[in-house]
């Protein structure tokens, strides 16, 4: 029986003008240390597509390319495939998820073989504690983790991944321009023993929410509470890692420590945030560690306490450059 179902495939869009659908893969190759973030999606009713793409080696060689306002073309969305022109998502024969990406400076063709069926977030705390956040066909955020294999190129540097590790998500539903005060999304895996997605958000009006899920030893465990601590540098945005502590309803406490490898700045309508775009977020591509195991995670953060919408710049670890670049900042002596 396939792990995949209709929840993982493209959905029929609702009527909301900001209805969007997107697929994300975060991956790491333990042999080379290569990490990456691939996102393909579209605002279907606005007839535009988006590609967010960043990859990096531990030595600081990195690639980033966003394509945020490409017109949605005939054939970009089918019942089993979604494309944003430079990136494509499919589930061939319902056996694995495939992410393909194309650029003059880089390429990726990656397959993730999930360990468990897609999971939706549950509300943590408050009157809705323990209920699922998915609205079924209207909106959802199914996520999973698994083994990754495939091929990646950055410039002339080619990597064949045979036993990589990855985390993926699939978001669909209305997504108007967000103006978070802050957000933390720690989602990742250290292998088949532990995968997780833990999100905190403070909205523009100050309302605070927590949601997520934990898969422990192949079983979903309800969450009692959790907090994420993110260590940032003086630019206020570059994260060098941190940790999350989650208390489960079964009485177990998990502490997941995180070491950042690189960061990719992402925003909705503009490359690095700015007027009429969402606040710039950082996809902090990282190594999570738990009980002697390590894997990959997105230690994503948005800090926008004063609700401004200026473009970000002059960052230490987070990448705002287009194309191939070399990181000039070495955080190793700070840890």
Automatic annotation (TrEMBL):
Which residue intervals define the domain DUF7065 in the entry? 7-175
InterPro entries according to UniProt? DUF7064 (IPR055492), DUF7065 (IPR055493)
Q: Which residues form the signal peptide?
A: none
Which Pfam family name is an example for this entry? DUF7064
> What residue stretches are annotated with the DUF7064 domain?
180-304
Domain of life, per the record?
Bacteria
This protein is called what?
A: AttH domain-containing protein
